[in-house]
Amino acid sequence: MSASATVDRLVDNFQRRRPIRAGSLIITLYGDAIVPRGGTVWLGSLFALLEPFAINERLVRTSVYRLTTESWLQGEKVGRRSYYSLSGAGRRRFDQAFKRVYHGLQQEWSGHWTLVVLTPLDSIERQRVREELEWLGFGAFAPGVLAHPTMSPSEVTAALSEIQAQGDPIVMRSEPMEPAAPKPVRAQVRESWDLDELAGHYSQFLDHFRPLWKALSDNDDLDDQQAFMARTLLIHEYRKVQLRDPQLPDALLPTAWEGRNAFQLSRNLYRAIHHRAERWLDAHLETAEGPLPAPGPSFYQRFGGLEPALAEAPV
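Given the sequence above, the corresponding structure tokens read:
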């Protein structure tokens, strides 16, 4: 099967899902394509970006309005046109989520644990803080006690401050053990995080996107628009699995961990198609001042380093 036919199949699978979560795809587009180019885009550009996925203007407007009311996006009117960018809270969530996507697995673990004790909170506040910490990758070590091996207390305090809950939970840092991951600790990890379910999600992701990698090797006929669509769906699906991943260090993960394979596949595919996707974005993204600027230097640090596009020779 050719690469273009493989992308058509990926898009068809996306369109068959019900409900189509256009808001989630819009966040993927901001993180992958818009933030590296300044972060603000005309609403009409969003229409153009989402039209190839069969998401109509009405659904885009509804989704953008919802993302604005949920403090992901903020809007600005210039004349009769509307322009949208990530809000401050949306940028924090974006930074946390997309850092996982583009920069891979954790560095070597120090053996420390950050612990958050929720028992001083009333039941409603405890549930609210628990949900925020679980979104950040914390697992339950005991009733009222959540833990994470790599997130620092200062990062936890900043996150709690964002939701105005920094004063009540108790945040502590444990001393490392020798060895850092003895058998009882590994058993606790499997009790606190469902790694088998997470591995299943990674396996599904690999099953969906490995055919594209093979097709690019056998018959790479992708045009610029198809490359953009393939890159968007790649990051969209990978990001969804990453949001479930607590980002545990290697020392606490199974030896054969599908998350490593998923990152390698994403890196290889992204490197293979990002130039063509950027050409399509050059032609379809617009701000109040005109076309969006080229991606900044941080874009080319994704997945361990991307090759900048070569400048075209003057005619």
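Confidence is low (pLDDT under 50) at residues 311-315. Try to locate this feature in the token string yourself.
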